[in-house]
Design a protein that fits this description.
mainly alpha; 2 domains; about 55% helix
């Protein structure tokens, strides 16, 4: 009998094909994934869809890598005083949510960073 997974008769990869059948059965039993695409996205022009999908309001926090980068730079490079990284760090700060900014301020205070730098970051709240 021909295997419906690999198409061979007889099946030469029984373990793999059995695993594939079991996985397919589990996936069919799951409800379909919920999409976070906007309603009627199919009828939107590309520019509008781009704006909707890339709207920062859709995301509550900045990416963890952005947070980690700014934290490291502020602690180890005095990143708001250092002219080489200041503009990049100001851009990163503007991307952080209020929750992330508050956490960053508490970390900087525990690290003993300059009060002037902490005050400048508090201006983003």
């Amino acid at each position: 009998m021909r295997c419906e997974i690999c198409g061979l008769d007889p099946c030469e990869t029984e373990g793999f094909c059995r695993f594939s059948r079991e996985t397919d059965a589990r996936n069919k039993a799951k409800p379909p994934a919920q999409s976070d695409l906007p309603k009627y996205w199919e009828s939107m022009d590309v520019g509008t869809l781009w704006d909707v999908l890339n709207n920062p309001a859709r995301y509550s926090d900045a990416a963890q890598s952005t947070y980690d980068a700014i934290e490291w730079s502020l602690i180890y490079n005095d990143g708001l005083r250092n002219p080489r990284v200041r503009s990049a760090n100001l851009r990163r700060l503007s991307q952080l949510s209020d929750r992330q900014l508050k956490h960053l301020i508490s970390v900087l205070e525990r690290q003993g960073c300059r009060p002037e730098m902490i005050a400048e970051i508090e201006g983003y709240l």
